[in-house]
């Protein structure tokens, strides 16, 4: 009897997610980079309990139509490259097309998006990698991604994030948001104990060395 078996799609997705979504800060980083690549000039980020309970990233980027929104949840679907030659001239922060499908497989996920000239947007709800709802949405132009109950279907991983670890996770997320706030036009972060924007932070950080953040 063969000892080697093909993994189910669900298990394979969770394994792949572990390579991309190591911690809540990984989620925030991927979502913010997507927003920047979408041409966003304003990015709002909200977290709760170190990102385990909630990560929400809202931008005013180009948005997506329904077909692209659904396709963005497929593994290795990307607008950043078309051929192997494009890999030599990647000018975006992300290009592999793995972030969203990896995040959806280990969370309760909600995506709402609308192009600037569109009458209606699209709302997609995904639980554990399975699409539950696809419907018209009425959000402002841009994209909003909401990630709740991160690692809810991986109890051992979720239990690792005890209160002390959540404090570290929050600190890691703040660091990522600070780096993004430095060079974005309008960036706002809100967490359990802090809320700030780059309008206040830029004055404070302008005299600090770039090596502190990069």
Quickly list its features:
single chain; 214 residues; alpha+beta; Heat Shock Protein 90; eight-stranded mixed β-sheet; 7 helices; 34% helix; 23% strand; globular; disordered C terminus
Number of strands: 8
| Spatial order of strands in the largest sheet | 5-4-3-6-2-1-7-8
Estimated share of beta-strand residues: 15-25%
Low-confidence stretches: 199-214
How does the helix and strand content classify structurally? alpha+beta
CATH class: Alpha Beta
**Which shape, going by the Cα principal axes?**
globular
List the quaternary state of the chains: single chain
Mean pLDDT comes to 76
CATH architecture: 2-Layer Sandwich
CATH topology: Heat Shock Protein 90
Order of helices and strands: HHEEHHEEEEHHEEH
Number of domains: 1
Estimate the helix proportion, in percent: 25-40%
Q: If you compute it from the alpha carbons, what radius of gyration comes out, rounded to the nearest whole angstrom? A: 18 Å
Please count the helical segments. Answer: 7
According to CATH, the homologous superfamily is: Histidine kinase-like ATPase, C-terminal domain
Query: What distance lies between the first and last C-alpha atoms, to the nearest angstrom?
Result: 52 Å
């Amino acid at each position: 009897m063969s000892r080697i078996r093909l993994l189910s799609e669900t298990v394979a997705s969770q394994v792949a997610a572990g390579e991309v979504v190591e911690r809540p800060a990984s989620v925030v980083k991927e979502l913010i980079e997507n927003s920047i690549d979408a041409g966003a000039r304003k990015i709002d980020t909200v977290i709760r309990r170190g990102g385990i309970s909630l990560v929400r990233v809202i931008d005013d980027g180009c948005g997506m139509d329904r077909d692209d929104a659904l396709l963005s949840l497929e593994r290795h679907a990307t607008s950043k490259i078309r051929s192997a030659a494009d890999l030599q001239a990647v000018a975006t922060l992300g290009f592999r097309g793995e972030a969203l499908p990896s995040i959806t497989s280990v969370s309760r996920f909600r995506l709402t998006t609308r192009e600037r000239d569109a009458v209606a947007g699209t709302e997609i709800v995904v639980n554990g990698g399975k699409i539950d709802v696809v419907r018209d949405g009425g959000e402002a132009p841009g994209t909003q991604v909401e990630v709740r109950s991160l690692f809810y279907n991986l109890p051992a991983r979720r239990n690792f994030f005890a209160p002390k670890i959540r404090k570290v996770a929050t600190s890691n997320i703040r660091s990522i948001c600070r780096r993004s706030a430095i060079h974005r036009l309008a960036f706002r972060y809100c967490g359990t104990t802090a809320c700030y924007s780059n309008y206040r932070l830029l004055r404070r950080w302008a005299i600090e060395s770039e090596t502190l953040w990069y």
